[in-house]
Amino acid sequence: MFKKQFVKMKEEINMACVQIKGTRQEVVEMLQLF
């Protein structure tokens, strides 16, 4: 169940990155906060 939530969260982050044209490095740094 948690894995399903994590995948959904990852997809949302990816979509947000596309919108703000963020770099992949920024995504990695965000994920490290969890």
TrEMBL record:
Superkingdom per UniProt: Bacteria
Pfam families, per database record: DUF3911
InterPro entries for the chain: DUF3911
Descriptive protein name: Uncharacterized protein
Organism (species): Bacillus cereus
Lineage: Bacteria, Bacillati, Bacillota, Bacilli, Bacillales
